[in-house]
Specification:
By secondary structure, the chain is mostly helical. 61% of the residues lie in helices and 0% in strands. The chain has a single domain (6-112), classed as Orthogonal Bundle (Helix Hairpins), CATH 1.10.287. It contains four helices and no strands. The chain is globular, with a radius of gyration of 18 Å. It starts with 5 loop residues before the first helix and ends in a 13-residue tail after the last helix.
């Protein structure tokens, strides 16, 4: 697949999967969007919990082992829900890339300036 943009392909595959399960993330009525933003946020919260359970976080339990394979699956699951959420918010792969690039610049600027105070306006352009 080197000739295709991988993020764009992920967005395409996710839209197809969502359609198959009966959720049209690409053409969702505005009135349904808050419900689906919440649904996807809750799903991601659960996936993060499952990812956490892949790591031996119980310092008192000596039997635990790091399950890297399962952690990788949980990261993929998070991507499924994150892409769906982006689609509900009318964001394409290109939109995500551009928002990420701009936010990354803000994060570097924050580090360069010491980030000693919250500036509610530094991300308004994203």
């Amino acid at each position: 697949m080197p000739d295709k943009d991988m993020l764009t392909e992920i967005f395409h595959m996710q839209a197809e999967l969502n359609q198959r399960i009966g959720v049209n993330t690409l053409h969702m009525p505005e009135a349904k969007k808050p419900e689906w933003v919440l649904n996807y946020c809750r799903a991601m919260t659960q996936e993060v919990a499952e990812l956490t359970d892949s790591v031996p976080w119980k310092w008192w339990a000596k039997y635990q082992k790091f399950d890297k394979q399962n952690a990788r699956v949980e990261v993929a699951d998070l991507f499924h829900f994150l892409v769906s959420l982006a689609q509900v918010l009318d964001m394409s792969a290109d939109d995500i890339f551009e928002a990420y690039r701009k936010k990354n610049e803000v994060n570097f600027q924050r580090q360069d300036t010491g980030y000693t105070a919250k500036d509610a306006n530094d991300s308004k352009h994203i």
